[in-house]
Amino acid sequence: MRFQLTYKLFGRSAILVEWPADISQEIIQDIISFEGQVKEIDAILDTIIAYNSLLIRYQNPIVDKELTISQLKNKYTASSYVIKQNQFLWEIPVCYDASFGIDLEEIANKKKCSVTDIIRLHTETDYIVYFIGFQPGFLYMGGLHQNLHVPRKSNPRVRVDKGSVGIGGAQTGVYPQNSSGGWNIIGKSPLNFFNIKATNPCFAKSGDRIQFVAVDIHTFYQIEREVINQEFIIKKRLL
Amino acid sequence: MIVILHPGIYCSIQDQGRFGHTKMGVPQAGYADTYAAKMANALLKNYDKDALIEITFGQGKFKFTSDTYICLTGADFSPKLNGKLIKMQSVYPIKKDSVLSFGKRVYGARVYLSVQGGIQTEKVYGSRSYFEGITQQKFDKGAILPILPIQKDSDNSFSRVRVSEKHFTTMYLPCFKGPEFSKLNKEQQRKLFIPFSISDDNNRVGYRLKESLENNLSSILTSAVLPGTVQLTPSGKCIILMQDCQVTGGYPRILQLSEIAIARVSQKITGDKIQFVLEDHL
Fold first, then answer.
1. Contact state of A50 with B223 under an 8 Å Cβ cutoff
2. For the whole model, what pTM was predicted?
């Protein structure tokens, strides 16, 4: 699928390409495929993917804006060659024990349902990874069930533990590092979402999917040990 | 090697920064005052990309445990070598056991200390720039920073340049319209180009400005930001993002600073005045 795109200069040496302002799987897949084509251009320093945009940073200041944009437009319309990346569905163990899911009770009260219902709703669908931002390894995911939409806390916590699984508005995500944070915490994953020592520090990428799988607290600690010993292999399936 | 006797308020290792890893959410980081940092390297015949020490607000104390050459650029905090005042933008040969310290502020906020061949801490993703969770090097009292053995090169000792003090004193920040600039009405656009002052919330992540703009813009779908992006927050306060900023953000991006403007901002302190000036785009 091809979209009507806009191209804007962003500073002296970057072009911001924008898709229609929607959060949709068609758009993110189109951005990923365009990014795959664009990054082969030699003069490119870096690219930043987000919900409906792609920032293309050049190594040097752009001298001819019209020429640079028309090159990009040509790449986009030359749809004959589309780079297909392997995309995976990752199974992420999460322990929803009350000792980790410190806001579960409050959400259940607000939503007039049981904690079990919340866990069921959170684990029964998978989520698409739109992009990674905020912190190294923080996945922006879409697809949270409407009954689980909860506004951010008005007073963010000073410290949220690494691995905490949260809900912020219509989004769900996992904190890759200890940090402050305003999301409602419903559980904890024993996995590293950003491991600087690994060959590939962040296992997931834009376009992959995440499936949360509930584990009990005993299993949580067992997996945590395996992760530390670098023995744990995350279950994945090619999409 | 260099031993940190006292880290001062804040110091870190910086080079040109990290590129090509934003897709994992890894920030660019890198020296904030590109102009001063590149000059410090150039005077020592280092490469642009060689790592140096960025010292915020002077006050640090460093001991050299081997011979080398050094050069200081950026902010002037009355640097002293073994207690004797030395000049900025000048190359000095250093004898083992020399101590570098600082005194009173003359101008600026960030000092750059380059050593011959650059600081040799571990590279992560092609850069030595400090970022929590990415690099391991600490800058506490007693921390040791590796450097290369001295290369005798009589050519460059005592070479020096003069810098324009304007770099540190000017309030003008050349910039471009940001992606959401056109969403501002005429009155907002006019008010954006009158002077602002720097609030006390300023660091390598961002500089918040004191004065507010009336803001009726809705937030945007989270999208790319860069060092030098000026965001308009819901409260009407502007934030100038700096080198350690996140890779994406959800506030309207109303301006984008030029590289020299980012360098100028990095030398500002709380209360300093700034004024955005639009540059013609190509």
1. yes
2. 0.92
